[in-house]
Amino acid sequence: MAPARSGNGGVQSLERAFELLERLADTGGEAGLSELAHASGLPMPTIHRLIRTLVTLGYVRQNANRRYALGARLIRLGENASLQFGTWARPLLAELVEEVGETANLAVLERDEVVYVAQVASRRHSMRMFTEVGRRLLPHGTGVGKAMLATLEPDQARALLERTGMPAYTEHTHTEPAALLDHLKTIADTGYALDESEQELGVRCLAAAVPHAPVPTAVSVSGPEGRITDDAVRRMAPAVLRTATRLAAQLAQPPPPE
């Protein structure tokens, strides 16, 4: 029997399976079948059949409390997708470096951690990099992390901070959830975040979230605080925001016609 087709020509069961995976991701943890039915609007028998298949394949797991969560098999797919994302973003990062003269980074939020997926180093300044591709950090102590947190609903951001904790990397790191949540409102208003020696002393970072990205994503420029002055921030911020917007436009491009 031929698989049922959706209105856009796709395979309906495949579309529904991915919808359930996204609904599970939106919960931030786990969900029961009735919650998935309410969120997706799909009939319970359909959800039960799809979930059973996804569990068998390892893309969903059933916890001891009989609720469902994303499975470990998705980790490899997500990590490879992040690296590919970084690869095609590098030309835009290179243009940003050329414009501002400082190292540019791209990071995504993965399993409550900031993961750096691309970097283009400045050729104007010969000094060590403060981050490297593949490095994982907690979001509260980084410019890119704070830019991402500012795109979340306050209750989502608070829940993430409760899960990760807020250890102090330097004396400038935010360690109180309430104070950081207030700070995130300012970031949302200005459109960009600053890391003021919060991850590493003497290092300043200017970061902006990529709007409407499928997962929280941010682009940044970083360098020593002696160069990333307030005047430099005012000069660089439009370029960083423009790069974030261009990245969003690339992500939104429709697939080529078959």
From TrEMBL:
<keyword id="KW-0319">Glycerol metabolism</keyword>
<dbReference type="InterPro" id="IPR029016">
    <property type="entry name" value="GAF-like_dom_sf"/>
</dbReference>
<dbReference type="InterPro" id="IPR036390">
    <property type="entry name" value="WH_DNA-bd_sf"/>
</dbReference>
<keyword id="KW-0238">DNA-binding</keyword>
<feature type="domain" description="IclR-ED">
    <location>
        <begin position="73"/>
        <end position="253"/>
    </location>
</feature>
<keyword id="KW-0804">Transcription</keyword>
<dbReference type="GO" id="GO:0003677">
    <property type="term" value="F:DNA binding"/>
</dbReference>
<protein>
    <recommendedName>
        <fullName>Glycerol operon regulatory protein</fullName>
    </recommendedName>
</protein>
<dbReference type="GO" id="GO:0003700">
    <property type="term" value="F:DNA-binding transcription factor activity"/>
</dbReference>
<dbReference type="InterPro" id="IPR014757">
    <property type="entry name" value="Tscrpt_reg_IclR_C"/>
</dbReference>
<dbReference type="Pfam" id="PF09339">
    <property type="entry name" value="HTH_IclR"/>
</dbReference>
<feature type="domain" description="HTH iclR-type">
    <location>
        <begin position="11"/>
        <end position="72"/>
    </location>
</feature>
<dbReference type="InterPro" id="IPR050707">
    <property type="entry name" value="HTH_MetabolicPath_Reg"/>
</dbReference>
<dbReference type="InterPro" id="IPR005471">
    <property type="entry name" value="Tscrpt_reg_IclR_N"/>
</dbReference>
<comment type="function">
    <text>May be an activator protein for the gylABX operon.</text>
</comment>
<dbReference type="Pfam" id="PF01614">
    <property type="entry name" value="IclR_C"/>
</dbReference>
<dbReference type="InterPro" id="IPR036388">
    <property type="entry name" value="WH-like_DNA-bd_sf"/>
</dbReference>
<dbReference type="GO" id="GO:0045892">
    <property type="term" value="P:negative regulation of DNA-templated transcription"/>
</dbReference>
<keyword id="KW-0805">Transcription regulation</keyword>
<dbReference type="GO" id="GO:0006071">
    <property type="term" value="P:glycerol metabolic process"/>
</dbReference>
